[in-house]
Amino acid sequence: MTEKHLSSQFDSELNTVSSRVMELGGMVEAQIHQAVYALQEFDAEAAERVTETEHRVNAMEIEIDRELSSIIARRQPTARDLRLLIAISKTTANLERVGDEANKIARMVKSIIESGSARALPSTELRIAADLASGLLRKALDAFARLDTAAALSILKDDDLIDKEFDGFVRKLVTYMMEDPRKISASLDLLFLAKAIERIGDHAKNIAEFIIYIVKGADVRHTSMEAIESALQ
Hints:
Elements: H1 8-41, H2 44-75, H3 79-115, H4 124-146, H5 149-179, H6 184-216, H7 225-231
């Protein structure tokens, strides 16, 4: 991930903290898979495992942040090295938030299981969107490990697919609620789940933007796709 420096110790510190980010990403991916499984099977035990992992994710996010603060204070990095450390910090924060979204899904699944009203509603679309979001996060982590701007650009484009899935699901839920007002409460629960899945895709998109920031030094947030493609040329 990083370029070689005169200080081999600095290289070692950068590689260590980068590996920690990948480890955190793996934990968060596992949370998503467990949350999706809990939704697919209406499995309360799987949902509980997501919540248990959340404590470890939060603790690791704090540990990585401390490591980054120590490196910055001791090494006083500049240019690309400083961008890398800033982006790692932001990526770590986004991964922790992905874990939060997975935990939201798990909590809501447990609530829906208790209500006994989910099986009559279109949860299949949710699983499709969740698979897209999980795949996007994995691509983002792989691209971050390689600092691959071409892959980052592809992720930014793919995020639109999740947004379209979310919009289509919302329209379907509105139809359900109009046809049968008794399904309003359960439909709102599923809408909450859909929003959490959409947010996972948004965090993967954020990580892709950080890759471009590291490599090109360009902040492409709130930037048109045409301008981003131009910055990468």
